[in-house]
Amino acid sequence: MKLAGSLTLAFPGVCMHEVLFDDAFLKDTGVTTLDFAKALIDEGFHPMTMYFPLVVHGALLIEPTETESKASLDQFAAVLNGLAARAKGGEAKIFHAAPRLTPRRRLDETAAARKPVLRWRPTPAQREAAE
Fold first, then answer.
1. Is the pLDDT score of 90 beyond 90?
2. Among residues 56, 1, 58, which one has the least CA distance to residue 27?
3. How many CB atoms lie within 10 A of CB 104?
4. Lesser CB count within 10 Å: N end or C end of the chain?
5. Rg (Cα) of the chain, in Å, rounded?
6. What's the distance, Cα to Cα, between the start and end of the chain in Å?
């Protein structure tokens, strides 16, 4: 109920242990589902599942664990509402720059999927630091 005015439900009805939104609330904002998820990382939350189910365009599948407190769920809802308001308010640039507070920024996900690096090889400096 706390997200009803900000995000758009993919299907009407009662939510059980998960809730599925679509990206209709981002229409005409210049913010993509991926941008929204990356901005959530800067707010200290793990982003939601975005590519499932395949029948929902711009799926945002949120499934909190049973160990989350009501206070942490309320905080998460407040962050989602705030991000949705910023997107609708025309602040697309902050979303395009996200995540800003992580060791790595936007990765080339297409290249990573096509040419995955399956084995980490330390640089000489990293090898030396470990010794």
1. yes
2. 58
3. 6
4. C
5. 17
6. 54
